UniProtKB/TrEMBL annotation:
Alphabetized PROSITE patterns for the sequence: ABC_TM1F, ABC_TRANSPORTER_2
Keywords of this entry: ATP-binding, Membrane, Nucleotide-binding, Transmembrane, Transmembrane helix
Membrane topology, from the record: Multi-pass membrane protein
Annotated ABC transmembrane type-1 domain residues: 31-310
ATP-binding in keyword set: yes
UniProt name for this protein: ABC transporter ATP-binding protein
Source domain of life: Bacteria
Pfam families: ABC_membrane (PF00664), ABC_tran (PF00005)
Subcellular location: Cell membrane
GO molecular function annotations of the record: ATP binding
Regions crossing the membrane: 24-48, 60-81
Domain ABC transporter: 341-566
Keyword Transferase belongs to the record: no
């Protein structure tokens, strides 16, 4: 399965730096606050050690009380700075994430449809939905906790050094274990979480395909194989998650062993130094407390580093989308001089597969309406996609008004594609229509609805959370968008196929009204559309085998006549 690109670790780090750079002041304040939080806690073990020494020396109670108040003040400062630091980290993270989200969505909207189709819509949806959610959760929870824990570990080792360098060396006894195990975990967990995110994207794509094609699956009695496919992708996602969890478990076991080694080293060294009268009991106590307080931050990192790694894998997937190259702009943009269409020597194959189109030549005069018909698999949809610029041809040229498609400044202004798969955005009818022309007035929107005979009000709420439009109404909405976009050339790819018999006549009138005055290529599912076209082109196995007016082709008794007879027979039967 082809998937969208995933950024390398180096590129992900560089992209993160680019995103953080505009927020240097906030970053500096965040770092200072987090260091202050760790430093506040750093004074607690020495103060507890002084209490031990004061009790052994039978010092005055006032001294002990004063030290206890110092400990309380340090704990309050720690709590305050930690809370502020977490807030600043979350704020910084959300600002960075907002910028990243905008970049990803902007690039996702610019990704060529051919790339999305090759990757599968599930992968793209998982990235702009699930992956952003993972990063957002990591920014709010994992990142602040991991940063504070790292600072605690570093400053605690500094505190051990200040007490006695020999105690610091003892505290470093488990360092080789920490380093080796951490390097292993970072090296192993990154690919594991990337594989988990990828498997979840494939599972999402499988579910979307199964649900979206449920009617076809039932019609061809393919429920079993389809469920098996979904189950296979779901099991693969579960297996990927279990492999990541197993790596986390082994990491935890190794870290617990390292903690045991460190505690034994600190206690043994402290005992020897106290017996040699090199340090006080209070200093040995402070050293033990310093090391014991490493348990919590290391344990927290163990728990949260897992989430941080998952967020890192999600970030690499988002940066991969954000870095996708934009479609190359023409070096010298040109504007078509008329609305005629010319396809010369068009060949097309999907991803190195067998050719679907074989040297197709087709000319459509300005204002002419051509219907393309043929059996399923003849290449009709591919021809429409090539004409609309969705798929660049493997060979051959597409011209609009004697200008190659690749040299037109804004293809979408001149060529529009309407397919049978129509998306209704959540919002009002007016919001949906303004996707085609944001500056359209309410009067223009209403006029477009009247043109396609759509019985809707601009204030009607549709899409998720609103009225669920029928296939007929959704297609009328798409045709109204076509009217507003006002392209010179329109391509309709079986735009009435999903309406059913009841809505077919309504949509055929709507399509005719929307195409009035435009050059049009209609991929006809219903041959009544072909009968009213200026010319019919018959496609068979990727080649044009007939072309001419409906009546002439019927009279010729060729391929189109056979198609028409098969179409008309059920309608003429009693």
């Amino acid at each position: 399965m082809n998937v969208l690109p995933i950024a390398t670790l180096a590129r992900t780090r560089a992209a993160l730096g680019e995103l953080v750079r505009p927020h240097r002041a906030l970053l500096t304040g965040t770092v200072v606050t987090l260091v202050a939080a760790s430093a506040a806690m750093l004074v607690v073990p020495p103060l507890l050690g002084r209490i031990v020494d004061a009790v052994i020396a039978r010092g005055p109670a006032a001294l002990v009380d004063g030290i206890a108040l110092g400990i309380l003040a340090a704990l309050v400062a720690r709590a305050a700075f930690s809370a502020l630091g977490s807030l600043l980290v979350a704020r910084l993270g959300e600002q960075v994430l907002a910028t990243l989200r905008e970049r990803v969505v902007r690039r996702a909207l610019d990704v060529p449809l051919a790339d999305v189709e090759r990757a599968g819509t599930g992968d793209l949806l998982q990235r702009v939905g699930g992956d952003i959610a993972v990063i957002s959760e990591g920014v709010r929870r994992a990142v602040p906790t991991v940063v504070i824990s790292l600072l605690d570990v570093g400053l605690t080792l500094v505190g051990l050094t200040v007490l006695d360098w020999r105690l610091a060396l003892a505290g470093l006894a488990p360092l080789p274990i920490w380093v080796l195990v951490s390097r292993w975990y970072v090296r192993v967990s990154g690919p594991l979480y990337a594989a988990e995110r990828r498997a979840e994207g494939e599972r999402t794509q499988s579910l979307l395909a199964g649900v979206g094609g449920a009617a076809t699956v039932r019609a061809y009695r393919r429920r079993g194989p389809q469920l098996a496919r979904i189950e296979g992708h779901s099991r693969a996602a579960v297996d990927a998650a279990m492999r990541a969890s197993d790596a986390e478990r082994r990491f935890g076991l190794a870290m617990n062993g390292a903690e045991l080694v460190g505690v034994l080293a600190i206690l043994g060294t402290g005992f020897l130094l106290v017996r040699a009268d090199a340090i006080t009991v209070g200093a040995a106590t402070a050293a033990a407390l310093y090391f014991l307080r490493l348990f919590d931050p290391i344990g927290i990192m163990l728990y949260q580093l897992d989430e941080a790694q998952s967020a890192g894998a999600a970030l690499a997937r988002l940066v991969g989308v954000a870095d996708m190259p934009a479609a190359p702009a023409p070096e010298e943009p040109r504007t078509p001089r008329h609305a005629g269409v010319r396809l010369a020597g068009i060949r097309h194959a999907y991803d190195g597969g067998p050719e679907v189109l074989h040297g197709v030549d087709l000319e459509v005069a300005p204002g002419e309406r051509v219907a393309v018909v043929g059996a399923s698999g003849a290449g009709k949809t591919t021809l429409g996609a090539v004409l609309a610029g969705v798929h660049p041809p493997t060979d051959g040229t597409v011209e609009i008004g004697d200008v190659p498609l690749a040299e037109i400044a804004d293809v979408r202004r001149h060529v529009a594609l309407v397919t049978q798969e129509v998306h209704v955005f959540a919002g009002t009818v007016a919001d949906n229509l303004r996707m085609a022309r944001p500056d359209a007035t309410d009067a223009e929107l209403a006029a477009a609805l009247r043109t396609v005979e759509a019985p809707m009000r601009l204030t009607d709420v549709v899409g998720d959370g609103g009225d669920e439009l029928s296939a007929t109404r959704a297609q009328q909405l798409a045709l109204a968008r076509l009217v507003l976009a006002d392209p010179a050339v329109a391509v309709l790819d079986e735009a009435t196929a999903e309406a059913g018999s009841a809505g077919a006549r309504t949509l055929e009138r709507a399509a005719a009204a929307a195409l009035a005055g435009r050059t049009a290529v209609v991929i006809a599912h219903r041959l009544t559309q072909a009968a009213t076209a200026d010319r019919v082109v018959v496609l068979d196995k990727g080649r044009i085998v007939e072309s001419g007016p409906h009546d002439d082709l019927v009279a010729a008794g060729g391929s189109y006549a056979a198609l028409w007879a098969a179409w008309a027979a059920p309608r003429n039967s009693p």
